[in-house]
Amino acid sequence: MDDHKNASGQPAESAPSGRRLWVSIGAVLAFVGLAVGIFIVSDRYAEKTVSGFPNFQDYEFTLTDHTGRTASPGRFAGRPVALFFGFTYCPDVCPTTMMNLAAARDALAERGIDSTALQILFVTVDPDRDTPQQLGEYLSLFDADVIGLTGDPPAVRDVLKRFGIYAQKVDQGDGDYIYDHSAAVFLYRADGSFKGTIVHNEPADFIVEKLKSIL
Question: Where does the pLDDT of residue 54 fall: very low under 50, low under 70, confident under 90, or very high at 90 and above?
Fold first, then answer.
């Protein structure tokens, strides 16, 4: 008998080759199915993430700005909003965010893009120390045209809850404390719809483009 043929007269390698072919086809189909599944899940998650945020004016809160004026969502309607949370005794994240937003506005101006419609809102997570006067003095240190917002502790806690903000007091000893808190900047278009976020330490060019996208 020919050494290269099996009992049926077929080449000896035919069966293994066929199995390898079906295994390869199965692997390709599995990969395609996995890729499609990941795309569908990711796409639905992205839609849910964006659609899960109400329009800015649909939030309900009443706070006080750094000049002593009452501030509610309706006051900021019709113009884009960049909203972030922090406190005036913050050692790093808050001043960095403030400077990054100011630098981004300068970069937009250098490109001939008018950002005067943009409202940057800074809501304190530390209402016990951040009075309107304290906010005003703090914001005067930055050339960023930011509106500071505070209120009594229950009102501030309610705002943090509504926006899903994490804020945890951390004792530093001797009666001093800081806050560990969410650091993202929430972006809203002029119609109040949620556009996305700027994360802490995001590249400067990205920040500029994201602000540009809501103007």
Answer: confident
